[in-house]
Design brief:
Low-confidence stretches of chain A: 1-5
Radius of gyration of chain A: 23 Å
Oligomer: homodimer
Strand content of chain A: 15-25%
Number of helices of chain A: 17
Structural class of chain A: alpha+beta
CATH topology of the domain at 276-392 in chain A: Alpha-Beta Plaits
Distance between the termini of chain A: 40 Å
CATH class of the domain at 276-392 in chain A: Alpha Beta
CATH architecture of the domain at 276-392 in chain A: 2-Layer Sandwich
Shape of chain A: globular
Strand order of the largest sheet of chain A: 15-12-14-13-17-18-16
Amino acid sequence: MTKTSAQRTRRLGGWGFEGAAFSPPTPMLTWLEERLGPSEPFPSFDPATAEIPAAEPLPDLGSAPLSTDDLDRLAHSRGQSLIDLIRLRSGTVSATPAAVARPANDQELEDLLRAADRHGLRIVPFGGGTSVTGGVTVVPDDRPVVTASLEGLAGLHHLDEVSGLATLGAGTRGPALEAALGAHGFTLGHFPQSFELSTLGGWIVTHSSGQESLGHGRIESMVAGLDLVAPAGRLSIPALPASAAGPDLRQWITGSEGRFGIITKATMRVRRRAETLRVEAALARTWRQGVDTVRTLTRAHGSGRIPLCLLRLSDGPETEVALTVGLAKSRFEGLTRKYLGLRGVDRGCLLLVGAKGSPWDVDRSLEQAKILATERGVVWLGAGPGRNWSHDRFRHPYLRDGLLDRGYATDTLETAAPWSKVDTVYRAVRDALGDLPVLCHLSHPYGDGVSLYFTFFFRCPTDPDEAAALWAGHKRKAQNAIAETGAATSHHHGVGFWHAPWAPTEWGELGTDMLRGVAERLDPNGILNPHVLLDPTDRLEL
Amino acid sequence: MTKTSAQRTRRLGGWGFEGAAFSPPTPMLTWLEERLGPSEPFPSFDPATAEIPAAEPLPDLGSAPLSTDDLDRLAHSRGQSLIDLIRLRSGTVSATPAAVARPANDQELEDLLRAADRHGLRIVPFGGGTSVTGGVTVVPDDRPVVTASLEGLAGLHHLDEVSGLATLGAGTRGPALEAALGAHGFTLGHFPQSFELSTLGGWIVTHSSGQESLGHGRIESMVAGLDLVAPAGRLSIPALPASAAGPDLRQWITGSEGRFGIITKATMRVRRRAETLRVEAALARTWRQGVDTVRTLTRAHGSGRIPLCLLRLSDGPETEVALTVGLAKSRFEGLTRKYLGLRGVDRGCLLLVGAKGSPWDVDRSLEQAKILATERGVVWLGAGPGRNWSHDRFRHPYLRDGLLDRGYATDTLETAAPWSKVDTVYRAVRDALGDLPVLCHLSHPYGDGVSLYFTFFFRCPTDPDEAAALWAGHKRKAQNAIAETGAATSHHHGVGFWHAPWAPTEWGELGTDMLRGVAERLDPNGILNPHVLLDPTDRLEL
């Protein structure tokens, strides 16, 4: 039995839980050393020696329990991006909250916000703390910051089995959420890579997209209703399948990153659990062939001809890492030989195709997908590599820590673009990152476009400021390149403060003004997460 | 060949085009007379005798052509609701625009808005003019009103065949839109009952839902990008398949009913045309059996097992009208005898099931649907009655005019609710309408709920004020009943000024304030359609 997350200890300065790890395999380290040269281990955090800024004194903030414990404050000072790890591991976190509040219900949260508003404090909402865009980072400020942990607002409140609607606390983490629904035979079907740690509320306010988004949709399509507490009051949007009563306020809150208010609970569209999920693998001979196949399969899915839940296409470099030097070497070895022997496939692109349903439905879908893909020249590999993906689907974030231990840093970039722009965006990001090793995959396909997800590596200086500056330089170049192509600022990581300098290029001046208009109505004094979304200051190196 | 809408003359004070009609069949009139008693014909409009308020003098409003022709102004004073027909037919329209502007491009529209803003005029945007909620009605005002017809902003601007994205002018009407896309083998798939007259921009700002929404989705799910002109400036939201850059501004504009700005063009997600659309009919023995079958079929569709594009379930009274006294008597007569002979089905509920795709796919979907439905005790009738539906799908609005000619008024009410509340809402609306003949169907099903669509009839007094007051009394009772159940204020008719007194019960105080916040940013002086959406004054009798 896996221990529940509540019983396990979160790792400070690294992903996940104490005792869990995913070390980079030797061939991967060799591959990095060949490309980046040898490196020095990046410092590893020792909480005992960390210099933690003293807690500022706070006025009475109502009834929510407050913690001023040093390590608790440190653990709530940052999210889980590369730069967060660098700062935490090196003991160079520049600000911590004055306290961590843990409201047990909506009323306690409302009291907290009112008191903070009255006393001129800042509030940073904290769900799973897995933001990779600075969404929960405490930014040095002239006012004390209180982090509001939502862990007390968790659990299944109500399940309407007839309608397939589940009302859940915003602080409910992935595993607890699926366990609670699973006990009744239901699933939300939302499985982002951060699933083990991230929360329902965090998913909703960042436009999260799960690995099975092709089948289940993005998180915002699952929100039927929600409750929000803001400094200006409470908002309760009823659970409705659809409404023509003006603009859909649900979609004004999804993606708002705690800047408009804090979601306390949401009523989600859930489904009966499927009996089977199966992911099979194939190999496209070229990127072009792979992209065309993914687009064609996505449309066959969209028209109902081939129901799928997952499509993912790795480019040549990512395929090379996955099949020959990477994480799955042993599982792929036989297949590697098989595919390398095929004419013209030695620079192939790995394609994963997933379907969910009854065993009969899954067989039929994958059989149809196979016919359609092989007609296009794709080589079908079968279920083996897919099992590998299923096994590792939530483990990859652990790998970053092991790489830093060896002196290599890795970060990801993601965007989305119409199908006709995929090649332009692909080239632009690769060009921007110059000689760095870069892997890319397409995932989360839509009828009109797809997400592009890039992973890049660099040798990490042992000096944390130098490391931060080096990373920020890469990030700026890549993000500028994305903005120049007109692609999305982010597909599912959100804005946080990282992307806040770029997001206005997507909104335009008037769009930015619309967002400000609502922020000012819900939070007139700007106490809620004031540096995310609407503050365009470049703070990448923080 | 059908003449294109551009070559035909719109009827004033009635639906559609001169020369087209759909007279109520004799059995239907008998059915109404039995229930409501005999009636007197409602006055029929004679434009020559109509008292049209004189055009107010206007300042220079930029370069858009302005028409001050009396009949042109009258034709742009109201939409197409029952009350609009009553006012137009009786010559009791209380206000007309001072002029009708016809901007030919975005710049002319922008100039018009700026001039109106400067001179303190009101602007009412006018697409197809088919609003049934007062969305284009000129409300008596202390400032002159200019109606901005969008007919000049029409047509296909760009088609990205690779991405399946079509950029179209907001003033493009249904038939022109499908013809332009059809020439390239594409379709938007949006077929509301108003299809012949309504426009893309109108669909987007009212959350329109087409008859095939189960397959194609609601209009807002098809909007990839859009351009808006507002008094505060222009907003251009890029066409993206998805983005996590903050709240989705597309969804801030969809449903905004011209209150925030005027959409000039939109980039829509389009698909390859399907070869076949087929609608088959079945008969559920009871309402309960029918509702359960629709829900089960919707979920089989949602999981990809049975792809469908349409599901519609009539209640007993609507089935009775359709099969025995109504529009389709002759086509149904054989079937009627067949079904009446079946034990327990003499008070059955007509179910329509539609699928789209290749003939093979359609056969398979309907065969699967039939198996699933008949397992539940539903009697499958086959394709005949479905053909009837296809033939009449856009003709029903003409019927209202013919009924008024005989002194009977009919109006519709629509809402949406979670599946678990369907019976509560159904009963509440029926109870609110008391002894009136009421028909109901479920359509536009979702995983978590469905739309309920009611048609009611009353004997129409020949005095227009009396008729308006009688109608408004019924409407208020029904809308109060809907609000009390917590169901949607409207599923796809929008808010206009009709529903503006009820919509805040759905938004709450804070939600209403959010909408106001954006309206004030985009239109600081409140010149755009100021009485829709956010003005809760009850003007039903206007």
